[in-house]
């Protein structure tokens, strides 16, 4: 365990947005490749994706705003859009999109949504990423549920996501990936179906009732890609694409605990097994030759919702776990050994998901209604904001700019007797690091 982190204060905060409407940032990849634009969705409440109509951009320096996508016939029942992130390789956004035929009887839901992309040079033109096929026989490369919280691989070639099936055991959340595909995954053109530009499969094996003491899981969730270019195994084998995810196991005492799992992504093996799409009465299966493996024993990750993060070199995975005082701290897991160690040892509890700086040496998070940056080299937590606990709430996940000079985050601001979620920037100055 580290000695207690030193805590420094800094305050160089400016508003990027200042309008009476919502601007919600996703938990990852909110900056364009060049760092000029930030993507947001129009939510003023994290729970309201189904009611949200717009995906927009705001210029970091000028505050200029652009709407790049807007739903048609939006109601409180859907279709809804949100949780947008930039590709690291091109001017393309990916986000959640509810089904176009959403209505009062079949509203936006965890099993009724899909991944959509928009290219900045073709605004308002949706590109459906994962095919949805509700008619049998099911089309290989398609799904029949809802994909969510899409995350780009380091080179922008693939996407990961969480998934809930609509037809079979919808409560079982799993993790999947979308792969590049020649042409489209084409399905029958009926209500509830859509073609997909990418080839989508499930890569986590979940069961309703895990055997106590086994490596079986009943939930796979909140994943990350390992490394910008994958990782090297202990025998020096290069794995180009791999995903780490959180998995709920049941220990020998019958208690549910969360551990870290990893799955290597082999495009050839995935596409060879066309039967993985499943049959009537089955959820989609994990393709043959794709196998998750448990990385940690005793990590017992925090039950506070957060997403795993990985270092760019693929050596480490980061997560939240509780210290002996019950405070959420960042821990680090060695990818090849499963070895765990605490990174932070703050005198307070982290109260948000977190992000890594591109250089892998800094972590940003929210605690006690303030934004912090933890510097690994100096073992210091730097407080970037000076909010009181009674001030408007800081919510969501702060993100580093591509060059690491500042952090952007969401905080409510009172306007016209209401609170609206705004985007703010906190600069990391030379005298604080």
From TrEMBL:
Name recorded for this polypeptide: DUF3748 domain-containing protein
Entries under Pfam families matching the protein: DUF3748 (PF12566)
Transmembrane segments annotated in the record for this chain: none
Organism of origin: Sphingobacterium arenae
């Amino acid at each position: 365990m580290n000695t207690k982190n030193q805590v420094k204060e800094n305050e160089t905060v400016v508003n990027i947005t200042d309008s009476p409407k919502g601007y919600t940032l996703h938990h990852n990849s909110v900056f364009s490749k060049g760092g000029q634009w930030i993507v947001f969705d129009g939510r003023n409440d994290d729970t309201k994706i189904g009611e949200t109509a717009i995906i927009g951009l705001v210029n970091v320096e000028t505050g200029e705003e652009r709407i790049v996508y807007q739903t048609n016939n939006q109601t409180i029942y859907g279709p809804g859009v949100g949780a947008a992130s930039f590709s690291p390789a091109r001017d393309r956004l990916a986000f959640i999109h509810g089904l176009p035929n959403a209505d009062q009887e079949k509203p936006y839901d965890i099993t009724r949504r899909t991944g959509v992309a928009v290219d900045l040079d073709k605004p308002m033109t949706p590109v459906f990423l994962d095919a949805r096929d509700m008619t049998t026989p099911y089309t290989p490369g398609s799904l029949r549920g809802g994909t969510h919280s899409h995350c780009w691989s380091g080179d922008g070639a693939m996407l990961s996501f969480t998934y809930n099936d609509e037809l079979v055991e919808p409560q079982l959340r799993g993790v999947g990936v979308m792969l590049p595909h020649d042409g489209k995954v084409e399905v029958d053109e009926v209500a509830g179906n859509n073609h997909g530009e990418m080839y989508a499969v499930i890569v986590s094996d979940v069961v309703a009732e895990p055997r106590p003491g086994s490596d079986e899981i009943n939930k796979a969730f909140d994943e990350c890609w390992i490394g910008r270019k994958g990782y090297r195994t202990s025998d020096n084998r290069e794995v180009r694409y791999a995903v780490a995810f959180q998995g709920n196991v049941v220990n020998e005492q019958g208690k549910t605990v969360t551990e870290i799992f990893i799955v290597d992504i082999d495009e050839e093996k995935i596409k060879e097994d066309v039967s993985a799409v499943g049959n009537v009465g089955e959820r989609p299966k994990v393709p043959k030759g794709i196998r998750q493996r448990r990385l940690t024993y005793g990590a017992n990750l925090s039950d506070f919702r957060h997403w795993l993060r990985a270092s760019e070199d693929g050596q480490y995975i980061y997560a939240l776990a509780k210290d002996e005082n019950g405070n959420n701290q960042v821990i680090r897991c060695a990818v090849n050994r499963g070895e765990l160690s605490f990174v932070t040892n703050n005198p307070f509890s982290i109260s948000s998901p977190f992000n890594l700086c591109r250089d892998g040496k800094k972590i940003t998070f929210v605690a006690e209604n303030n934004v912090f940056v933890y510097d690994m080299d100096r073992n210091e937590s730097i407080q970037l904001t000076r909010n009181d606990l009674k001030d408007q709430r800081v919510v969501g996940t702060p993100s580093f700019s591509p060059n690491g000079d500042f952090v952007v985050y969401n905080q409510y601001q009172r306007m016209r007797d209401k609170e609206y979620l705004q985007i703010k920037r906190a600069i990391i100055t030379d005298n604080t690091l």
